[in-house]
Structure formats: structure tokens, C-alpha cells
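Quick one before lunch.
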Amino acid sequence: MIISVASGKGGTGKTTVATNLALFLAENKSRNIRFLDCDVEEPNSYIFLKPEIEKTQPVNILVPQVDEKKCDFCGKCAEVCAYNAIFVAKDKVLVFPSLCHGCGGCSLLCPQKAIVEKKKKIGVLEQGKTFAIKFVQGRLEIGEPMATPLIREVKKKIDSDEINIIDVPPGTSCPVIESVKDSDFCILVTEPTPFGLNDLKLAVKLLKKLKIKFGVVINQADIGDEKVKKFCQKDNIPILTQIPYDRNVAVLYSHGIPLLIEGEKYKKIFQEMWQGIEKELKK
Ligand code: SF4
Ligand code: SF4
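Model of the iron/sulfur cluster complex:
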């Protein structure tokens, strides 16, 4: 089973929900739990889960290198590249590795076999464990724009016999789509503010397009207004649970301590969330 935890915008408490749900399930479920941090630009779930990293491996993509002695400057490689990562001039081929997605299309279609591929490191994949949770995270190189190939590597570690919790990057762009696709269920974490509602609407549109079942968790539920709740009611979107505003949560967060440490109050919230997910999955 794959449960992803996403939010239309950053700072809504997405990682707090993802990590605490994993801890709650690890304590209360008989199935193995696996946590995959796909927020590869800024992975921070390790701060709360404190895994012991046992294996680190580089993740590379293959970018083209042109042998101009073989090249006849026909321009086919530039034509086939959907990302404008190759430019062919009269007697020069320019490759822009930061735009290259490593799809291999140009080298495959080069009539002169003038393109070889060289490795470019985009980040690392780290694996380990914490409590009873298997932990995987991707860590993108600083300044590297290609998050999706690294996210794909993280997702290769999904085990369908376990409950896989995915921490999705914020927003609604390509890395989000790559992270949430194939999920059995997606939890959308939001806050009851105009910004929260606006970004929730975008995330809902995306999940409907991807045909993924989803429900909403309202964080800091007693601040802001009722518009998020009204939107969910009108659109028939299940509100899985609401997490009240609590200054203590911010204090725990700043110390990297999971909220379940606060005891029964939060355990009940995560129990309600999980029951809501199970109910939706049965529909
Ligand atoms: S497709 Fe091959 S031969 Fe043609 S311009 Fe590109 S590298 Fe050169
Ligand atoms: S590998 Fe793909 S993305 Fe990269 S330059 Fe070639 S065609 Fe473009």
C-alpha cells in the first residue's frame, strides 16, 4: 500500500503529518512500515525519525557528449530534445547539462553515432532504519534542478507488501506528480487560510486528474476561517482529521521531536486519520 502525504504549499505541516503517521502505524499495525522522503530538494523527515543510515549511493543521470569529428551537424538531436538541452549551430553542438533529463533520445537517434553518454551526479540515495520503520530518502545536489530522476530512484525502494508512506515535495509541479503517482491514497495537508485554500484547490485538481483517492487534514484548524471546510463539504472531500493549534507543537517541531510524544491527545488524532483513510480505501 502506498500512502502519500502532500500539500499545495510549504509550511502546512506535511512532514509532521507524514512522520507521525509512520510512527503511529509502526506502533499500532502488524504490517511493516517504510518511509520514503521524496522531498529531495529539502528532505527533513530524518530530523524527526532520526534514522541510522546504513547505505548511501550516488544517483546519476546520463548526459550526452558529442564527438564533433563524427558529427555532421544535421540537427536531429536538437529536434528530438523536448527540453532544449542541445543546440546545433553551423559547425558546433552545444549541450546544456542542467537542462538535460537524461532520457537518451538524442544518442539513440543520432544518425552518425556521434553521441556518447557520460554520468552526471544529481544526488544521493540514503537507506537505513529507525524504530520499526525502514527509511529511504533522496538528497539532491545543491543547485541541481533535476529532482524527478532522483525521486524515481527513491520510489524504486517501495515494497508493495508493506505500508509505504511518501513525503511529497510541496506544490503541484513535476516532482509532485512523480512522487504521488501510483499512490493508493493521498493525504492533503492544509491550513484554514486563504493561501491554504488556494493551494488546496490546485492540489485537488491535480489528484482528480491523476485519479488518486484523497482526503484532507486541516492543520492549525482553530485559526483562520471556515472556507476550507466549506470547500471540502461542497466538493464531497473527506476531512480525515483536524489538528488544533497548539504552541507546544511548534516547540516540539523546533527541537525535532515528533508530536506523538505529547501522548493520547495526538494518538487519537492519528487514529482518526488512519480510520478515515481505511474507510475511503474501502469505497
Ligand atoms: S544528431 Fe548527431 S550528427 Fe546530427 S547534429 Fe546531433 S550529434 Fe551531430
Ligand atoms: S538525453 Fe534527452 S534531455 Fe538530454 S539532451 Fe538528449 S534528448 Fe535532451
